[in-house]
Write a structure and sequence with these properties.
alpha/beta; Enolase-like, domain 1; Rossmann fold; 2 domains; seven-stranded mixed β-sheet; three-stranded antiparallel β-sheet; 10 strands
Length: 256
């Protein structure tokens, strides 16, 4: 599975760099969970969307250990427990943000297809409303939006059950980073193998591009957190939109 390989690559990166990381804060929260790490006075914040439809509660059956080290957090990324898996992906994103040495170019994912004449059918795996609306305005494309969460199943949005039938017909596919959390990324990439562009999108996709090489993903469109303290404060107040206002900057970059 892709998430297992990404986990191993992240652990190998830690081993190669030999940084003395400390996990100084974390939370399974709304709308994003997060892990905050620090090394040599430099902090980095990784986030992952919290999928409430996957949450089953914990109660006293959960053995919470706030003294976990970073490797233990990362090792949870392929857990079958949604809390552990979410925090594991957030930890991988935190490491990625720490080592992120690219320029956050501010480029929106939609720009990858707007000027392409060979793109007609576009799928969104996850209802990414701002990007969907931007592309609909161009009136150039046939757009299919798939969603699993009941709260985002609005008019014109298809159940993710129809991905199996329709994804092979697509020229471009925008894939929510939450597919890392619900373990559907392998399936989506397999069904979308005919697409010219396969773009992993959203804050949950904050990982370094090198961690995604060889899986068929062509681009990552996510956010670089540029003000950790401000972003952390917004997250503690359950803010999603404010995460992108003054605390982070969008980027879109090629994977392979």
């Amino acid at each position: 599975m892709i998430i297992e390989e990404i986990k191993e690559r992240a652990l190998n990166l830690l081993s190669e760099k030999e940084e003395d990381f400390k996990v100084i804060d974390f939370s399974f929260a709304l709308p994003y969970s997060y892990v905050l790490i620090e090394s040599n006075g430099k902090k980095a914040l990784g986030v992952a969307m919290t999928l409430l439809e996957e949450y089953r509660g914990h109660g006293n059956r959960k053995d919470l250990n706030i003294n976990k080290n970073l490797e233990e957090f990362i090792n949870m990324a392929d857990s079958f427990d949604i809390v552990e898996r979410t925090l594991g992906v957030a930890a991988i994103n935190a490491v990625s943000q720490y080592y992120f040495n690219f320029e956050a170019n501010g480029k929106d994912a939609a720009e990858l297809v707007l000027n392409r004449d060979d793109i007609k059918k576009i799928a969104f795996v996850g209802n990414m409303i701002p990007v969907v609306n931007m592309l609909k305005k161009s009136e150039k494309f046939d757009i299919y939006v798939f969603e699993r969460s009941p709260s985002l199943l609005m008019d014109g949005v298809l159940s993710d059950a129809f991905e199996y039938r329709l994804l092979p017909e697509m020229d471009a596919v925008f894939i929510s980073g939450t597919t890392l959390l619900n373990d559907t990324l392998d399936f989506v990439l397999d069904r979308a193998k005919n697409a010219k562009l396969k773009i992993l999108v959203g804050p949950t996709a904050q990982s370094l591009p090198e961690l995604f090489k060889g899986f068929g993903i062509t681009h990552i469109a996510s956010t670089k957190i540029i003000d950790v303290d401000k972003a952390l404060l917004y997250l503690k107040f359950a803010s999603s939109s404010m995460l992108f206002k003054g605390a982070s900057k969008k980027y879109t970059m090629e994977v392979e």
